[in-house]
């Protein structure tokens, strides 16, 4: 019996899992969870930090703000490398770190589309205001373009 049209032999399972990392405890848990999924599935783990673009009131301090958000990105990358080094003897996962400027939802959605991510993993919001206006996780789920896992 012939394989159904459109089926790609040997490519079952997710190829790319995107994890959002902003340095919060829940985003670190989400990244660890995504790393476990990627390891078990043989997927690429793409870890993304979206550098916030601040309001116009801080536009005059633009260079300082940009430098600060880049420092955060550098610190997250260093922490990821350290974590990889600690677990290297136990297991390994192929990963890459990506950072773009923008709001978290738009940045993650754009990267998920560009990477053709099979899944997006994010931490639950730790900010009280998100109960009213909606968190990044809720917005990603509502977009309905990828399976989204929200890690507490």
Description:
The chain is an alpha/beta fold and 152 residues long. The protein has a single domain (16-151), classed as HUPs (Rossmann fold, 3-Layer(aba) Sandwich), CATH 3.40.50.620. Helices cover 44% and strands 19% of the residues. The chain has five helices and five strands, in the order E-H-E-H-E-H-E-H-H-E. The chain has helices at 25-41, 62-87, 104-115, 130-133, 136-143; strands spanning 16-20, 44-51, 95-101, 119-123, 148-151. It has a five-stranded parallel β-sheet, with helices on both faces. It is globular, with a radius of gyration of 17 Å. The relative contact order is 0.21. The model has no long low-confidence stretch (mean pLDDT 82).
Fold-level CATH name: Rossmann fold
CATH class: Alpha Beta
Structural class by helix and strand composition: alpha/beta
Spans where pLDDT lies below 50 across 5 or more residues: none
Average pLDDT: 82
Radius of gyration: 17 Å
Counting structural domains, the number is: 1
Helix content: 40-55%
What is the CATH architecture annotation? 3-Layer(aba) Sandwich
Adjacency order of strands in the biggest sheet: 3-2-1-4-5
Distance from first to last alpha carbon: 45 Å
Keywords:
152 residues; Rossmann fold; five-stranded parallel beta sheet; 19% strand; single chain; alpha/beta; 5 helices
Summarize the structure.
This protein is 44% helix and 19% strand. It has 152 residues and is α/β, with parallel strands linked by helices.
Q: Would you spell out the secondary-structure blueprint of this structure?
A:
Layout: E1 16-20, H1 25-41, E2 44-51, H2 62-87, E3 95-101, H3 104-115, E4 119-123, H4 130-133, H5 136-143, E5 148-151
Pfam families: Usp
InterPro entries: Rossmann-like_a/b/a_fold (IPR014729), Universal_stress_UspA (IPR006015), UspA (IPR006016)
Family: Belongs to the universal stress protein A family.
């Amino acid at each position: 019996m012939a394989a159904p049209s459109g089926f790609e032999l040997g490519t079952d399972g997710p190829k790319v899992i995107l994890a959002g990392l902003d340095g919060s405890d829940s985003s670190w848990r989400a990244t660890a969870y995504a790393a476990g999924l990627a390891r078990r599935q043989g997927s690429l783990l793409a870890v993304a930090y979206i550098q916030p673009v601040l309001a116009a009131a801080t536009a005059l301090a633009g260079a300082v703000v940009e430098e600060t958000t880049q420092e955060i990105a550098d610190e997250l990358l260093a922490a990821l490398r350290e974590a990889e080094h600690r677990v290297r003897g136990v297991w390994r996962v192929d990963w890459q770190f990506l950072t773009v400027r923008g709001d978290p939802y738009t940045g993650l959605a754009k990267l998920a589309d560009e990477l053709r991510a099979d899944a997006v993993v994010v931490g639950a919001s730790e900010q009280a205001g998100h109960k009213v206006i909606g968190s990044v996780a809720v917005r990603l789920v509502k977009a309905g373009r990828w399976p989204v896992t929200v890690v507490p």
